[in-house]
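Field reference: sequence -> structure
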Amino acid sequence: MLSIRSAARSAPRALGRLARQTPVARPNTLFKTSSPLSAALRTQRASAFSTTVFRRAAESDEELAAKLESELQFEEEVKQNEQLPASVKDFLDNSPFELHDSPGKEDVKLTRTFGDEKITITFSIADLANYDPDMYEQDRALEDEDDIDASDVQNANKQANVPATGGARSAQAEEDLEAEEEEDLDDDAAPPTRLSIVVEKPGRSPGALNIDAVAQDGSIVVENMFYYEDAALATPTTPEGAQKKADVYPGPPFGSLDEDLQILMERYLEERGVTQALAVFAPDYVDVKEQKEYVRWLSNVKGFISA
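Structure field:
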């Protein structure tokens, strides 16, 4: 009896366990078999979406290419109406320097021989992108601070001897007017251009002089003068060379040298063609070069988009 009762009590539980152990078939939503109609609809929607995307991309490309072509035509019209600056033409016609300007490159080089010396001057259109007018004006203000102080002293001395009849104010008004005119001229002036001047003596000396200068307002302003025992360090072409150049003692700031030494060094450069003509040419040619590179860039981008 006990065995039968035990069997009867345990039977439902065994069946329950069996029921729990038996897997229940459930629909697989991940790999659900689609009907031919739904599959066709999805394919049609995907095809329509892809076609729409590509059509829009093609229209956008055509619009971009047309805009680039319009810009190219505009630049060509401007080029036809513009002439090469006189400073550039005169320098190229009369200067002993030979111009090296490779399309697509930022740097421009001028080379010449002076006796047994080889002189290379390098400047770049990158100066236009890096030019900060506010910082430039601050530097000029600091440089002119002493001149302004001296002018104030002179004005005070003049006013001490001038009766208070308005004459002093008239002189001051004239000075203010001249200052405004100079500011207007400065607004039209080209940005300063940095020059790297390298002087070598092949066969006579393994070293080289490297002078950093700035062409601005028709003048050459020397900033630093380096000497390298290995001339290759003056114009390094590898990261290792650039690191070796950075490790060399650069020498004192040019402005801290004896004034007579500064004057003689400036005369040394002038005799080798680093003159006022170069100071005017370099910024003007940077503008010409940048314009040519911009047109070349427009043409290259248009060609790529239209390909």
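Note: DSSP finds ten helices and six strands in the chain.
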